Amino acid sequence: MEAVAPFVTEEGEDPEIDPSTLPQAVPPPLRRPSEPPVFRPLRAYAFDPSRADRAGNVMTIPVRYEKLGPGPVGSRVHVIDYDASRNCYYDPVDLDDPLIALRGGLDPSESDPRFHQQMVYAVTCETLRRVESALGRTVRRRTPEGAAPLILRAYPHVSRLTNAHTDHTTGAMVFGYFRAVAGATGRTLPGQTVFTCLSHDVIAHAAMHILVRAGIRPDLALTSAVDLDAFHEGFSDAVALLLHFSYREAVLDTIQRTAGSLHGALVHGDGGDAAEASARIQAEVALDNPLLTIGNEFAEALGQRGGLRSALGQRPDPSALDTITESHARGAILLAALFDALFTVYVEKSLDLFRIYRAGGGRLEAGDLPAPLVERLFAEIDGVATRVFDTCIQALDYCPPVRFALGDFLRACITADLEAVPADTWGVREALMLAFRRRGLKPSGASFFSEEALRWPRVDATRLTRPGPALAGLAESDEASSAGNQEALRAFVEENAVALGLSRGAAVDVYPLEVSRIVGADGTVQTTLVTQALEKPRGRGNVTPARGVSLVLDGTGRLRYAIPTPARTA
Predict the structure, then answer these.
(1) Is the model's pTM score more than 0.85?
(2) From CA 193, how far away is CA 202, in angstroms rounded?
(3) What is the dihedral of CA 417, 421, 427, 429, to 10 degrees?
(4) Fewer CB within 10 A of the terminal residue: the chain, N end or C end?
């Protein structure tokens, strides 16, 4: 390599320089990535602000990337920050602003409305993504007249309201804000403003109400019954809590604090002793298990402890359904049954890990589990929670139309899980059956608590005019084929009304056919077609259909299940 001579100047030899003659830097051309990123990282609370920055409470949600308008406003989720109490709009966050995008979104803040907007958007998008992944299809707004991708509209600060509400007809999720009562507990101060839009559970719960009632099963929004109302509440709670178990840092921390017993109501404090009555310093005070409670800050602001509702709040009581009629309390029985099954499978699957650890001289003490064991336990609970989540979502396609008893959801879960996972090596279906039985959740029409008895019966093709409707191409974007399939489906239902459980000659409404593609346990893609047919109401002024039938067909159009409305439900 040739040496470079040192730079030397001699006195009196400095030349006069004209700055305008010096060379100018040429900026490189602006280069954009050939493909946009797959995900947009956005920070949010895994639970709510009451846990501050404790391990895992601040998480990053990988939201599918798309160009956004201020709000944020995307293709499926619109955030409109209008405050009716003050008759004003708050400045919308622009997540495409480079200064915000480069930081992975705004930092969590209870006082910044723009972060509130970001969190509502991120949690709603993640809930929608998980549901559509489990279903194997896009959730569409469905009416007998047609279907289009469902849009969810969120209003983070709609008014001074001690609650959050939904309207499935518009897809609106409205979140209130209020001041904590004088007897507020925990970290929540009396008089503190509490924003329901900062509770991960409240957002996911609200999103599920819209997704079920407007998209997946709009027929279940046409009527009201004790068990049906309880189902909506208990199911939405279950989905919100099941999402907790995919939040790695929060689950790892809880595994350590409970020594792997994730179903424990309390977790050890930082000081070790979880007995609050004997605690000498704050670090020894026991904490509520965040994985099991719904809306912890919300409850604290109202002077409660243990969240608004808990996954395992009460001892199993088979007679409880005879006296409990309030929808949230009755739905909590369904919630408890689902989580009983979840933790039963988790305990069975992790038992060998604990045995091996003890055989090696290890002690199961809170805060003292080795990292490899904690990681393995997380893998177990994450896998089981995903299986139960997917089963619950897919079971919506196997629920009877119009109305049903809480116990009928067990039949839907057993059928959906059998279709997706024929060989149940984990024992999920056995755990579900035992958990529902312990709580008195009895399916209608089933004589035994067994897989064979609880699975909805397959259609007897000999009773039909033909095995199924003659369907054309099943591409959802093919409008001509979709219209033809709809007509073929209606003709098939009318021809076989009695065999399908409908009245002879009854006028029917048939919802658009939905095409699901789910990866089965053996890795193959299973195509399933689902819809509902409802008898049109009879009589002037009557708007509620008396009954209907849920239809499940295989990928060739052959009818597999025809699930009618039960004769009697609570």
Answers:
(1) yes
(2) 16
(3) 20
(4) N
State what percent of residues in the chain have pLDDT above 90. 61
The 3-state secondary structure of 310-341, one letter per residue: ECCCCCCCCCHHHCCCCHHHHHHHHHHHHHHH
Both tokens of residue 134?
């489990």
Q: Please report, as a single letter, which amino acid is at residue 283.
A: A
pLDDT digit string, tens, across residues 68-101: 999 999 999 999 999 999 999 999 999 999 999 9
The candidate with the shortest Cα–Cα distance to 227, out of 389, 440, 386, is 440
- Which residues are CB-contacts of 564 (< 8 A; sequence separation ≥ 6)? 400, 401, 500, 501, 502, 547, 548, 549, 550
Domains detected in the chain: 39-222 (3.10.170.10), 317-454 (no CATH), 461-564 (no CATH)
Q: What CA–CA distances, in Å, run from 555 to 290, 507, 532, 560?
A: 42, 27, 17, 10
Cα(509)–Cα(165) distance, rounded to whole angstroms? 29
pLDDT of 528 above 90: yes
Q: Is the pLDDT confidence value at 52 over 90? A: no
**Nearest residue to 457 via CA among 498, 501, 426:** 501
For 355, the token pair is: 């045995």
Residue 475 banded pLDDT, cuts 50, 70, 90: low
